[in-house]
Amino acid sequence: FPSHDIGQVVSKGSAKGAYLKEYQVGGKTGTAKKVGIHGYEDKYHSFFAAIFPLESPQYVLVIHADNPKGKIYGGQVCAPIAKKIIPYLMSLSKNPTYYSNNVFDKR
Fold first, then answer.
1. Which of the pair, 97 or 38, is modelled with greater confidence?
2. Contact 47, 74 (CB under 8 A)
3. Which of 54, 55, 80, 89 has the fewest CB atoms within 10 Å around its CB?
4. Rounded to an integer, what distance in angstroms lies between the CA atom of residue 66 and that of residue 29?
5. Distance between CA 63 and CA 48 in Å, rounded?
6. Taking the chain, what is the end-to-end CA distance rounded to the nearest angstrom?
7. How many Å apart are CA 4 and CA 59, to the nearest integer?
8. Contact yes or no for 11/20 (Cβ under 8 A)
């Protein structure tokens, strides 16, 4: 598992917008042109996939933007969204009583 490499994508690379000093986050950005009936269009899919915390992964989070306006790259558009969501998800794992009403617990 290349956690060092995907960690550098967030700490030093194209997904710096997802960097959090509190958690080690790894990730992969992506950008793809949309295909229309006449071939490629000037419209895009932007992505960021995060795995965290890297030292003991618990979550995978994928953010997708369909034809974003202005900035188009996954690291610019989607990574900052992940940065806002990751602390919330980590707070849930630190408060296990939150899951006590989970429908999956009532099997």
1. 38
2. yes
3. 55
4. 14
5. 5
6. 34
7. 17
8. no
